[in-house]
Write a structure and sequence with these properties.
The chain has 124 residues and is mostly helical. It contains six helices and no strands. The mean pLDDT is 91.
Length: 124
């Protein structure tokens, strides 16, 4: 059963990544959608790693990780700014701190919780 859940979560992560990449190519989609999807992806990555923890603890860990990355953007040393200039660095660490991103992350985690409740738990 644990393996089945991890496969479901992995498929969700890959799907969210693909949707996120597609959303960057469509100018009509607001940029905050990427932040929402990023947080939802983090939620399911944490589910993969800690499949047996309570979903509320998963949400707390995921939201904390998202907020930590966002607040880390206030740190502007040369070495980390160089990392942020790479494609992977920009995708993982972001570019600059925005208060609105914190709201987008909370929405993304809520979407993860809803997907967990409405879809994943019905499958298994």
């Amino acid at each position: 059963m644990t393996k089945n859940l991890r496969v479901i979560y992995f498929v969700l992560v890959i799907s969210i990544i693909l949707i996120g990449l597609l959303s960057r190519r469509m100018p009509l989609i607001p940029s905050f959608v990427g932040d929402v999807l990023w947080a939802t992806m983090i939620f399911f990555i944490v589910r993969i790693l800690f499949v047996h923890i309570d979903v509320r603890l998963n949400a707390f860990i995921s939201l904390s990780a998202c907020y930590l990355v966002e607040f880390s953007q206030l740190y502007q040393a040369d070495w980390i700014n160089q990392v942020r200039q790479t494609t992977m660095g920009r995708l993982v660490l972001g570019q600059g701190f925005l208060w609105s991103d914190l709201i987008a992350y909370a929405v993304g985690i809520l979407i993860g919780l809803l997907i967990e409740k409405m879809i994943v738990r019905r499958i298994v």
